[in-house]
Amino acid sequence: MELRKIYTDDNGLLTAFAVSRIGGRSENQDSYGWQDTPRGYLLTVCDGMGGGPGGKTASTIAVKEIIAGVCEASDDEEAPNVLIKAIRRANMAIIEAGNRQPELRGMGSTATVLLLSERAACIAHVGDSRVYQFRGRQKVFRTFDHSMVFEMVAQGIITEEQARLSAQSNIILRALGIKPDVEVDVQEVAYEKGDRFMLCSDGIHGTMPEKQLIRMVTNRRATLGAVTDNVATYVDNLGRESGGGHDNLTIAMVETKKNSILKPKMSKQTKFIILGLVALLAISIALNIVQCSNRTSCPPPAAADSTAVVKKDSVAKPGTAVKQQKDTDTKTNKK
Known about the structure:
Elements: E1 4-5, E2 14-21, E3 30-37, E4 40-49, H1 54-71, H2 79-100, E5 108-109, E6 111-116, E7 121-126, E8 130-135, E9 138-142, H3 148-154, H4 160-165, E10 185-189, E11 196-200, H5 202-205, H6 210-217, H7 224-241, E12 249-256, H8 268-297, H9 320-334
Antiparallel strand pairs: 1-2, 2-12, 3-4, 4-5, 4-6, 6-7, 7-10, 8-9, 8-11, 11-12
Helix pairs in contact: 1-2
């Protein structure tokens, strides 16, 4: 499937494009969908799993039910709860379809969902498909894969790059259609004008180191549509050059046109910098108070004692000034 524009022309909040390709497989089991809803712009990418027609059926059901679940949600529900319920609805629909058709039993799907409103971006996911948020050329948010190798990353056993290259990278710990109760990760994040959100299957992010992917996706010299298509084409060509048989690949890109009402939270690094500056300021003030106090309590030196000569090129040794002050204080107290 070639590049598609996935937003309406009158949408003043964003622009968006998507590409989904079969790769080197016999069937494309990835699916994606989008919808303008009363709650905001909704986008979902799902990667199906299962033999025969199962994978494609599962991802198609997931996209359909997630969109329906958001559109039919009560107006008084918070966005995170809406997405959780929509994904759980999709989960049960996949299980029920498998129960009705024995040949589909065991099918499943990952799910990534972005609900972008003027207030904030609400992000939910299950499995190892990902959602990224980029600002300028930096990654500011990314979902964490529900996979066996990424649990090892969380424990510090292996790095993310080792996880990507592992033969067990395709073993996921959560998916839709596996059991009735599915745990959904959901976050609400702020965004700024020009931020880019990327939803993608592992057929995209599993093909190259993350730093390289970030460089390609944050290219500001090309339009959003061109960047989306270039990434998909690069991954597809990379698979063919490696002998074919590569995974299905789906990428959907969104770029915002304004700031969200919700303001970004201060990062830990920024907090540490501010705390450090405050501490330095407090120490500086305290030292100035002590020095002023010492000047007030000590009488000025007599003219006969003013014999010190400061050479132009001399450098005082650390602690010298403090020692001289202490000597002065000692002499004064003895008197």
